[in-house]
Amino acid sequence: MTGEGVNDAPALKKADIGIPVADSTDAASSAADLVLTEPGLSVIVGAVLTSRAIFQRMKNYTIYAVSITIRIVLGFMLLALIWVYDFPPFMVLIIAILNDGTIMTISQDCVKPSPTPDSWKLNEIFAAGIVIGTYLALVTVLFYWLADSTQFFETAFTSKKDYGKEDREAKWVLSQRTLQGVVSPEFEPKSRRPCMIAEQAMRRAEITRLSELHTLRGHVESVSKLKDLDINKIQGAHTV
């Protein structure tokens, strides 16, 4: 029902949808359900499309809330069961705060209004939320596995031109030690490691002593040759 005057107010109030046109009286506007602010009926189309877009955003928010809840619960449960991961309360609090921040963007979401009158279809909303939440949980577990157990991100996002050169050289050295029969320290028993360290220290000390002795003996021999001395007689009386 449309109207503009005082005499149209009872009819506008009795109608299912009362619409006063532009420049209508205050009595007609107060009794109506939908007030037009511009001349013509084209503004009704814009109002319907806007209301349907708002309803679509509300549906998107509900689907997001269901899916993100399932993702957090299922994803964290899989992480805790597979990797025995411990979640501190502070991290859970940060995740909850960040999720509330992403919900604010739904008000600016670009949605397509429904061509027909829409309603709350809870079965479809919960089904879509469960499917999306399960997918996000599995992707989260896969992402954590790639970051924790593989070198995918290290090789994909590195700035080095020859990434992994040190590892390849270490593997080559290990293979050469294996071919030559030298046992790698990684495979030696833990009880032998202190003994090996002590033996290496003794060898270094012996090498240092021999080098000093060799240097001193060479110096004595060179001095004896310059002075035409018999080094054997000197060694018989004195020990260097």
Strands, helices and their partners?
Elements: E1 2-3, H1 9-14, E2 19-20, H2 26-31, H3 42-82, H4 89-103, H5 122-149, H6 152-156, H7 165-179, H8 192-226, H9 231-237
Helix pairs in contact: 3-5
Explain how this protein is built.
- The structure is a single chain.
- The chain has helices at residues 9-14, 26-31, 42-82, 89-103, 122-149, 152-156, 165-179, 192-226, 231-237; strands at 2-3, 19-20.
- It is mainly alpha-helical.
- It has a two-stranded parallel ribbon with strand order 1-2.
- α1 (9-14) links the parallel β1 (2-3) and β2 (19-20).
- The chain is rod-shaped, with a radius of gyration of 43 Å.
- The N and C termini lie far apart (127 Å).
Q: What is the H-and-E element order?
A: EHEHHHHHHHH
Strand content: under 5%
Helix and strand composition category: mainly alpha
Report the helical percentage. Answer: 55-70%
Strand tally: 2
Low-confidence stretches: none
Average pLDDT confidence is 75
Strand order of the largest sheet: 1-2
How many helices? The count is 9
- Main beta sheet: strand number and arrangement? 2 strands, parallel
Radius of gyration: 43 Å
For the record, give the distance between the C-alpha atoms at the N and C termini, rounded to a whole number.
127 Å
The global form is rod-shaped
